[in-house]
Design a protein that fits this description.
The complex is a heterotrimer of chains A (93), B (502) and C (486). Chain A has three helices and three strands; from the N terminus they run H-H-E-H-E-E. Chain A has 93 residues and is of the alpha+beta class. Chain A has a two-stranded antiparallel ribbon. The two termini of chain A are 35 Å apart. Among the domains of chain C are: 253 residues, Amidase signature (AS) enzymes (Alpha-Beta Complex); 76 residues, no CATH class. Chain C has an eleven-stranded mixed β-sheet, sandwiched between helices. In chain C, helix 4 links the parallel strand 2 and strand 3. Classes of the chains: A alpha+beta (93), B alpha+beta (502), C alpha/beta (486). The interface between A and B is large, with 35 and 51 residues. The structure holds magnesium ion and zinc ion.
Chain lengths: 93, 502, 486
């Protein structure tokens, strides 16, 4: 069973916030799922290489040639808060 | 891998506390912006100083659905750097995602490298001011992408703390970076500074970066700790983002002093990021309250591995220009240059190339080195002109040296002609001919002049014949006056003695 | 003209012969949307004006100058970026988001002259198997409005089943095309990983996601795949297909060997589904094919590996939704971290948050090897098992989903039960294999799909085989709601 502290730690890392009752439910929900996926431990996986991609590819590279940029207006068009062509974020410190 | 214990150089104050000797351990992480045409994973141009958010596209803004594609030249430049630092190039190298939230990081992860970096296990031999060398191990060289830029608005300081809000510009976001991580092999701030200076020179030499600390194309973080000699490593702190060589040294000095006095006061050092304020000279600790980072690295599924074969490595190696240290040694060994000249010429690639061409054409390497490090460099330094833009080409300088060698010009005249060459871009022979500057080496002509002067000055002639050697200079002056200084001094001396002797 | 019977190919023929104009076709489908979508709930956005303008442009072109599929309408799962058109992944966090660019598949559709009708409902960020995780609306199964259409491409499957579009595009990360296709009685295909560019597909799990067609029949699936497939310089993981896809013509299965995956016929498989599946096996025999049961022991662990890999990648892919550059931002936050947490907590739904939490957990320090590395190794094991199987047989078959469409709300309280819906489909994603689901018949009036899986890049052969099975089954059932429109 994943601990309450772990749930809170993971939530902080994920930049998610949960109410008390949600945390309670999450703790149980996550534990059930993690217990299930842990059944992989039953497999004998010694000597197997991990697969990151199903299709083997390598060295896919792009020529160093400039393409088209967005206009400033288009670049910030979806920004929730914008000032002087830049994205505004609240106080950091 | 790290070449053993470097020699301790004395640095009063920083290594010694009231309670005795402390040993300082410094490692540097250098971020180098590559001077490619385009960004690491998209085709936006790499620029500096443009209007905010005009050098961006959906990819480098991290828009949903966009995907990275790696820049082939960035990989080549990174390989060049790794090779120049003597690293082993990985046959199989992979990009990872480094996950953390920050407003200048559009995807909330940085595409970087983790356990399979491009280059491993290199070394940079750093030369200190006293000419001694010490090796600094290079742990790894890896590729990653730069973040955007934050400007802090409102508040009193314009700094992050106390700002009301911040503005984000992503023009810089996605610029290719190479991170060079050193072993903790440095023991003094001067060594750190020397390492950084020489790494900068090397990168400049490789032609892969603008290496401008003020503009941020070269950035330095330092890990520093202190310990009693022989004791295990102390707790380290990380000095972030020092934007000049001087600040690196001063920052390190201040932080070392802080650590030593804290330890001597019985305090413990907390692992933290610290900031050096060059104005007040003080150290502040940042982010100490923030929980430890957990970057959750995992292989970037949107990119495929890069596999580097021997042929590629050899191709890149062939494009790596001769490195300064090797060149300096070759200049001493092959041309017999003094170490000082060799060092100057090897440190600056275009100047070294220029010298080699002049030496080849003139056949006199030492003379060529004298002129290139002397008059030519003086002129370039005073005018701020690069050697490739100099009005005097290597061919032209070799032409001047030929006139000097065959006695047409005296050293003094050659210097004058050189000035004219710099001003007009014309070649030496043309200037000498036009101005009749050629040194008079014609025996008959000189003998005529000497005979007339000797005849007109019987008194001094008599004095010389009675053994007053000093009088000779009187006659030299007279001849020079009459020939406007163009008489070949050596020949003149010979002929005068012959005539005066009667 | 009766909309319920129109395949995309039929649309093409009508346009080609001049029996219908592109505008008439668009009107026809928009009328059907009008008639049924308040009950089906497939569409999140209907671009009436844009579609009519596109159709008018097609009609203005002489027929001889038109491309083969020019003027045929299509609808898109709402995770494909269309420049300037709201694209939300059915999430509050992307409400109002208008992408500044077209997905590569969208550019390909435009280049082929297809007319975009609008955007379709889905489970939020493609996380789900019933489309109940949409933050916007429920989508109802056209065969029984009390039931789910499957997911996550529930809108894409339901809209084709209800004849609201002749075909659509969906995406498949663990079965998100095939499972809803199965539950809605349409054809759904997941191509080989890399066959279709992912550029502009809002990522769920990058190493598993593929875009694919949902259509009325196999022939249309082949045609649509041919339009969207291809290597893309914007997607480093794209490969394309070895050759253009031709419309399938095979009707005889002589010489082909099919392996029945025994592990997928266990207790999770409903009897009704089993009965229809056995009927499909009989049809394969009748067409000259050979079916043999075989074992792929590792596939049973696919689900567990998937629920590590997919959330891990998702936790990172969804980190960019931070309220800075696009989408929702919470008001009144005291500082940056507060803004992040509020924005993301308000913007994401419960299942998305759950998966972000799982993904963050399995990648976090100290757990990575126990979970992620194990899952990636399991992936190797599964891929090896498939490779061995394809040494013995040409294709592998199983039911697409162990059950027929379930009732709305039935599994929302039990995530693990919901995850089981994808038991049979997930292994193909983990191994990157092409797989197709075709209607195999009805169980108590609800569709059952047959899944056929092939080796990497065997799309043409897979479509030929599926076409032959389809001809052999000779189904023509339509859901009541489409019939009612008659
Ligand atoms: Mg770095
Ligand atoms: Zn860009």
């Amino acid at each position: 069973m994943i601990s309450r502290e772990e749930v809170e730690h993971i939530a902080r890392l994920s930049r998610l916030r949960f109410e008390e009752d949600e945390l309670e439910r999450l703790q149980h929900g996550l534990s059930a799922i993690l217990d299930y996926v842990k059944t992989l431990g039953e497999l004998d996986l010694d000597g197997l290489e991990p697969t990151a991609h199903a299709v083997d590819l390598k060295n896919v590279l792009r020529a160093d040639e400039p393409g088209v940029c967005l206009s400033q207006a288009a670049a910030v068009a979806n920004g929730p808060v914008v000032e002087a062509g830049q994205f505004v974020v609240p106080r950091i410190g | 891998m790290s070449g053993g214990m470097p020699p301790r150089s004395s640095m009063p104050g920083a290594g010694d506390g009231a309670s005795g000797e402390w040993e300082v351990v410094i490692g540097l992480e250098i971020h180098v912006q590559l001077s490619t045409n385009t960004k690491m994973f998209c085709s936006c141009p790499v620029t500096f100083g443009e209007e905010p958010n005009t050098m961006v596209c959906p990819v480098c803004l991290g828009h949903p659905g966009t995907l990275p594609v790696a820049n082939e030249r960035a990989v080549e430049y990174a390989t060049r750097i790794a090779l120049a630092l003597g690293c082993r190039i990985a046959e199989h190298t992979v990009f990872h995602r480094k996950n953390y939230f920050y407003p200048d990081l559009p995807k909330s992860y940085q595409i970087s490298q983790f356990d399979l970096p491009l280059g491993l296990g290199g070394r940079l031999d750093v030369e200190l001011d006293d000419g001694s060398l010490f090796p600094v191990g290079v742990t790894r060289v890896h590729m990653e992408e730069d973040a955007g830029k934050l400007v802090h608005a409102g508040g009193a300081t314009g700094r992050i703390h106390g700002a009301d809000y911040s503005l984000v510009d992503f023009n810089r976001g996605g610029t290719p970076l190479v991170e060079v991580v050193s072993e903790p092999d440095m023991r003094t701030p001067e060594q750190a500074r020397a390492y950084l200076t020489q790494l900068k020179g090397l990168l400049e030499h490789l032609g892969v970066s603008d290496v401008n600390m003020e503009e941020g194309s070269l950035r330095c973080d330092a890990n520093v700790s202190v310990r009693r000699p022989g004791a295990p490593l102390g707790v380290k702190t990380e000095l972030k983002n020092m934007n000049s060589f001087r600040y690196v040294q001063r920052g390190l000095e201040a932080e070392i002093e802080r650590q030593i006095s804290a330890l001597e006061d019985g305090e413990t050092i907390v692992q933290a990021t610290v900031h050096f304020d060059p104005v007040t000279g003080s150290i502040t600790t940042l982010r100490s309250k923030e929980e430890a980072h957990d970057y959750r690295y995992f292989p970037e599924p949107d990119l495929v591995p890069i596999e580097i074969d021997e042929a590629y490595v050899e191709r890149v190696r062939a494009s790596v220009p001769e490195l300064p240290a090797a060149r300096r040694q070759r200049f001493v060994a092959d041309y017999g240059l003094p170490a000082g000249d060799a060092g100057i010429l090897a440190a600056n690639r275009p100047l070294g190339d220029y010298f080699e061409r002049v030496a080849e054409l003139s056949g006199d390497a030492r003379l060529s080195a004298n002129w290139v490090t002397g008059d030519l460099s003086a002129h370039l330094n005073s005018t701020g002109v690069g050697v490739h833009e100099s009005a005097v080409t290597p061919e032209a300088l070799a032409g001047l040296l030929a006139l000097l060698g065959d006695g047409t010009l005296s050293s003094k005249l050659a210097k004058d002609v050189f000035q004219v060459m710099l001003e007009t871009g014309r070649d030496a022979r043309a200037i000498v001919d036009e101005r009749g500057l050629g040194q008079i080496s014609d025996v008959v002509e000189l003998e005529g002049i000497i005979a007339a002067i000797v005849e007109a000055n019987p008194g001094p002639t008599e004095e010389f014949r009675q053994g007053r050697e000093k009088v000779l200079s009187f006659f030299v002056g007279q001849v020079m006056k009459q020939t406007k200084g163009q008489a070949n001094p050596k020949l003149l001396n010979e002929l005068l003695r012959k005539h005066l002797a009667g | 003209m009766e909309v319920f019977s129109l395949t995309a190919r039929a649309c093409r023929d009508l346009l080609g012969s001049g029996e219908a104009s592109a505008t008439e076709l668009v009107d026809l489908y928009l009328d059907q949307v009008e008639r049924v979508d308040d009950r089906v709930g497939a569409f999140l956005l209907v671009d009436r004006e844009g579609a009519l303008a596109q159709a008018a442009a097609v009609d203005a072109k002489p027929r001889a100058e038109r491309l083969p599929w020019e003027g045929v309408p299509i609808a898109l799962k709402d995770l494909l970026c269309v420049e300037g058109m709201e694209t939300t992944c059915a999430s509050r966090i992307l409400k109002g988001y208008r992408p500044p660019y077209d997905a590569t598949v969208v550019a390909k559709l435009r280049a082929a002259g297809l007319v975009l009708l609008g955007k379709l409902n889905m489970d939020e960020f493609a996380m789900g198997s019933s489309t109940e995780n949409s933050s916007v609306q429920l989508t109802h199964n056209p065969w029984d409005l009390e039931r789910v259409p499957g997911g996550s491409s529930g809108g894409s499957a339901a809209c084709v089943a209800a004849a609201e579009a002749p075909w659509s595009l969906g995406s498949d990360t663990g079965g998100s095309i095939r499972q809803p296709a199965s539950l809605c009685g349409v054809v759904g295909m997941k191509p080989t990983y890399g066959a279709v560019s992912r550029y502009g597909l809002i990522a769920f799990a990058s190493s598993l996601d593929q875009i694919g067609p949902l259509t009325r029949d196999v022939s249309d699936a082949a045609a649509l795949l041919d339009i969207i497939a291809g290597k893309d310089p914007m997607d480093s993981t794209s490969v394309g297909l070895p050759a253009p896809i031709a419309l399938p013509t095979r009707t005889d299965l002589t010489g082909l060997r099919f392996g029945v995956i025994r592990e997928f016929l266990g207790e999770a498989c409903e009897p009704g589904v089993r009965r229809v599946f056995d009927g499909a096996v009989a049809a394969i025999h009748a067409a000259g094919g050979v079916c043999d049961e075989l074992q792929l022991p590792s596939v049973e662990k696919g689900l567990a590996a998937y629920y590590i890999i997919a959330p891990a990648e998702a936790s990172s892919n969804l980190a960019r939704f931070d309220g800075v550059r696009f989408g929702h931002r919470s008001e009144g936050a005291s500082d940056l971290i507060d803004m992040y947490s509020r924005t993301r907590s308000e913007g994401f739904g419960e299942e998305v948050k759950r998966r972000i939490m799982i993904g963050t957990y399995v990648l976090s320090s100290g757990y990575y090897d126990a979970y992620y590395t194990q899952a990636q190794k399991t992936r190797t094991l599964i891929a090896d098992d498939f490779r061995r199987a394809f040494g013995q047989v040409d294709y592998l078959i199983s039911p697409t989903s162990p059950t027929v469409a379930f009732r709305i709300g039935e599994r929302t309280q039990d995530p693990l039960a919901m995850y089981l819906s994808d038991l049979c489909t997930i292994p193909a994603n983990l191994a990157g294999l092409p797989a197709i689901s075709i209607p195999a018949g009805l169980s108590d009036g609800l569709p059952v799909g047959l899944q056929i899986v092939g080796p990497h890049f065997s799309e043409q052969g897979l479509l030929e085989a599926a076409y032959a099975v389809e001809q052999g089954l000779g189904l023509s059932d339509l859901p009541p709601i489409a019939e009612a429109a008659r």
